[in-house]
Design brief:
GO terms for molecular function: oxidoreductase activity. It is an enzyme of class 1 (oxidoreductase). The chain is an alpha+beta fold. The chain has one domain (13-313): Alpha-Beta Complex (Sulfite Oxidase, Chain A, domain 2). It has helices at residues 13-16, 20-32, 39-45, 74-77, 92-96, 121-125, 154-161, 199-203, 255-260, 306-309, and strands at residues 58-59, 106-111, 117-120, 131-138, 143-153, 169-174, 194-198, 208-213, 216-217, 227-229, 242-248, 283-286, 297-298. The strands form two sheets. Strands 1, 4, 5, 8, 9, 10, 12 and 13 form an eight-stranded mixed β-sheet that branches. Strands 3-2-11-6-7 form a five-stranded mixed β-sheet. The protein binds the ligand Nc1nc2c(c(=O)[nH]1)N[C@H]1C(S)=C(S)[C@@H](COP(=O)(O)O)O[C@H]1N2 and molybdenum atom (MO). The ligand Nc1nc2c(c(=O)[nH]1)N[C@H]1C(S)=C(S)[C@@H](COP(=O)(O)O)O[C@H]1N2 binds next to loops.
Amino acid sequence: MLIKTPFPHEPLPSEITPRQAYLNRRQLTAGLGLAAASPLALAQGAPGGGKLPKLAAARSAVAGASVMDKPTSYADATSYNNFYEFGTDKADPAQRAHTLKPRPWTVAVEGECARPGNYDLDALMKLGAMEERIYRLRCVEGWSMVIPWVGFSLAELIKKAEPTSKAKFVEFTTLADRSQMPGLRSGVLDWPYVEGLRMDEAMHPLALLTFGMYGEVLPNQNGAPVRIVLPWKYGFKSAKSIVKIRFVEKQPRSSWEQAAAQEYGFYSNVNPNVPHPRWSQATERRIGEDGLFAKKRATLMFNGYEAQVGQLYAGMDLKKNY
Ligand SMILES: Nc1nc2c(c(=O)[nH]1)N[C@H]1C(S)=C(S)[C@@H](COP(=O)(O)O)O[C@H]1N2
Ligand SMILES: [Mo]
């Protein structure tokens, strides 16, 4: 069946209504008495799926890098995804991303920098020391997760590339290969998926070049083999399956701006005070807490990372620069 999405990224009823599968699983874990562990214990032990290679990481010392919220279950984090290259339904990436080949993989680092280059995945992974960061991820659609990511600050890669004084922004381009990605047949976005950051945002220690989650390498549906995660921005800024990182002078035009500029600004910082033109951003549903009577959570300014990133936007009108 062909389901027409009237606008990209519109929360579908299926996203607002919890899936029966989640309820069943929650009832099961509650029954086993597994739900009462302390956040710290869960953070250290949040288990992966056990099917992918392990990716060892030290606990991050970066300020704000480990929230105390209970991590989302691996099953939820890997079955409720946005990765439009594999379809627009939340279940599509988990069902269809097995066709993605995360190895061999090359990331081109280019543009306004003294040391451009093509990095093979293994070389890329050696540019920094792997850390575990437990971040909140808030989707513009109004749901959130808490995920223990593995990677290192994007700043590590940027410093090695030695950007020139002309490099004001960083542009990320992700894979667009029809033979691996069935969703590219749809015109829902202008492929390839492109995102961008101002240089100081990209250099912020919380900006994570991400290779794994839950102590293992990234599953395909979560953006294998390498993605970025920007915890203070709406989820769509966290581009998956990156193949190119380019330093540029002018502000890049992201795929979401291209699709609907009045709805998805370049900054897209999480902000409960600036509603999306078609819905409020004041509250969010935490995946895993989606029972019939579960209360929504209040969305926090900069997704709760205001102390760390607020100064990047000092003096800016955040209603204009949404
Ligand atoms: N290449 C690519 N990256 C993407 C997307 C996408 O469709 N394609 N979706 C974004 C959106 S809208 C969200 S909310 C997050 C979801 O990340 P997760 O599935 O790992 O939770 O990925 C982001 N990165
Ligand atoms: Mo999203």
